[in-house]
Amino acid sequence: MSTQQQKPNTQETPEDPEMKGAESPQQERLKEKESDMVDETSVDESELEGDTVLIKVFRYDPEVADKQEPRFDDFHVPFKKGMTVLDAVMYARDTYDSSLTFRHSCRQAVCGSDAFFVNGKQRLGCKTQISELEHPVRIEPLPHQEVVKDLVVDMDHFYDQMHTVEPYFQNEDTPDASDLEEQRQTRENREKVKMSTRCIWCGACMSSCNIAAGDNEYLGPAAINKAYRFAMDNREGEEIKEHRLRILEQEHGVWRCQTQFSCTEVCPKDIPLTEHIQELKREAVKKNLKFW
Amino acid sequence: MAERYSSFAPGGTTWLLQRITAAFLVVVLAFHFFLLHFVNHAADVTFMGTQARMENVGYFLTMVLFLIAGTFHGVNGVYNALVNQGLQGTQKKVVLAVLVIASVALIAQGTYVATVMAGWT
Amino acid sequence: MSQSYNRGLIEDFGRWKEFSAGMWAWIFHKFTGWMLIGYLFTHIAVLSSALTGPEAYTNTIQGLESLFIIRVLEVGLLAVAVFHILNGLRLLMVDLGIGLDTQDKSFYASLVLTAIITVASVPTFMDGVTI
């Protein structure tokens, strides 16, 4: 299940090195799964082959007089099998307009820098197949964040909220180094936190959350999930878990979640965010009931 | 061990109370609708009939508790909706004060009306 | 090609066509909640006619109930209350961590049940009143 196990797959000599590189191992896995069941997608893709795809990209640049008024630019991008939204905007930038600005790095859904608002939904550009979208494809920066330029949004607030929950392992009680011992985690406990560890800080969930949009102090799904990852880790002591719960049970912590499931639906790593937030609510209530 | 926090964090208390009142209201609201629209037709309600019901202490207490739970659940819901929209600072305090006063007034008035209905005044 | 783009309300309720089940459930729940708390205040105000005397109370209620529009509003109130109850049960389950994977289906189920109960209650609610 883990990404590591899939690594050998990427070592295969790809027929089309450029396109292979843009695919994440997860996409490959999904494709393998789907290829057995659905033949339609491949039919669709071959129909699109050789065609151009129309993408409408949000443009805005406060530093250039002509571009201070936000607008959409149309780009006709030649379609290639396996093309992602990120591939399309990269093509547009490299071929038509080098001023088109957006963040991207690993192109395989690991770095979390290319979350866009694609056809009305927060998606990861590198993990979204053009063939699966309605056309024309409308690409906008993430909602509820300040736009810096084109598709680049200001992530400072998101990072602030992430740091509020102290997103790092805290246990000074390390085994003696001379014993060559490790801080072990049970398999069950690893399974419990597994999904929550997958967060790539892309900010899609926070952007989709109606409450985070209204209440600026709300920690937001990503930060709460990060807190879950450590609060539920048995290697951390009871004391630190209580400390974590105290951060979460503030007025603008877990209680603001209205279980709209927006975050869970947009998460590109399929983290069950709402489930984790709900569990933390119950944990906080239980903790407080204990001392009555 | 670290210091024990024996008091409920404010958010957590109201969150739990909102759920507890919800569970209570689900039952009583359904009962209330059923009693006054199906068992007794709303159009046939008279003071005599109302008094006959209210005189029963169990019914009276249920109705008063229904009022208190409903007011808390509803007003807390309104307050939370506003906090979710980013209400803060002085405005938030004023809204909270107004809502608390309105709730107390509603519960007081409702309870008074119920005692009059029961004929205990 | 230049298109003015408002990043204000359009990001939220202007996007209503793209809302998913969970979001709709929340909107309906909040909306019905506002109606119910508003009704509670009205309800106590109307019942306060009992303070004037038994006659006034009976006359007020029967006078209101003889109005067609009041009966229609009562059916509306029933629909609102039933939805709030059913979706409230759904939310209680979600809070307990039950059925999170089928939360969209339970929302549709509460909508359908609300419709059925409301329609089935119309004869009882409309009994003995004419336009």
List the helices and strands and how they pair.
The complex is a heterotrimer of chains A (292), B (121) and C (131).
Chain A: H1 7-11, H2 17-21, H3 25-37, H4 40-48, E1 52-59, E2 71-78, H5 85-95, E3 115-118, E4 121-124, E5 137-140, E6 147-149, E7 152-153, H6 156-164, H7 187-194, H8 204-208, H9 210-214, H10 221-231, H11 238-248, H12 262-266, H13 273-290
Parallel strand pairs in A: 1-5
Antiparallel strand pairs in A: 1-2, 3-4, 3-5, 6-7
Helix pairs in contact in A: 6-10, 10-11, 10-13, 11-13
Chain B: H1 10-39, H2 47-54, H3 57-84, H4 89-118
Helix pairs in contact in B: 1-3, 2-4, 3-4
Chain C: H1 21-47, H2 54-65, H3 68-95, H4 103-126
Q: Which key phrases capture this entry?
A:
heterotrimer, A: 292 residues, alpha+beta, Ubiquitin-like (UB roll), Fumarate Reductase Iron-sulfur Protein, Chain B, domain 2, 5-stranded mixed beta sheet, two-stranded antiparallel sheet, 11% strand, elongated, B: 121 residues, mainly alpha, 3 helical TM bundles of succinate and fumarate reductases, disordered N terminus, heme (chain C), Succinate dehydrogenase subunit C (chain C), SuccDH_FuR_B_TM-su (chain C), transmembrane (chain C), Succ_DH_cytb556 (chain C)
Instruction: Give the helix level of chain C as a range of percent.
Output: 55-70%
Q: From N to C, what is the helix and strand string of chain C?
A: HHHH
Shape of chain B: elongated
Helix content of chain B: over 70%
Mean model confidence by pLDDT of chain C: 88
Pairing-aware structural class of the strands and helices of chain B?
Answer: mainly alpha
How many domains of chain B? The number is 1
Within the CATH hierarchy, at the fold level, what is the topology of chain C?
Answer: 3 helical TM bundles of succinate and fumarate reductases
Rg of chain B, rounded, reads 18 Å
Q: Tell me, what's the shape of chain C?
A: elongated
Distance between the termini of chain B: 56 Å
Biggest interface reads:
B-C, 35 and 35 residues
Number of helices of chain C: 4
Strand content of chain C: under 5%
List the domain count of chain C as a whole number: 1
- Please count the beta strands of chain B (DSSP E, at least 2 residues each): 0
CATH superfamily grouping of chain C: Fumarate reductase/succinate dehydrogenase, transmembrane subunit
The helix tally of chain B amounts to 4
CATH uppermost class of chain B: Mainly Alpha
| Number of beta-strand segments of chain C | 0
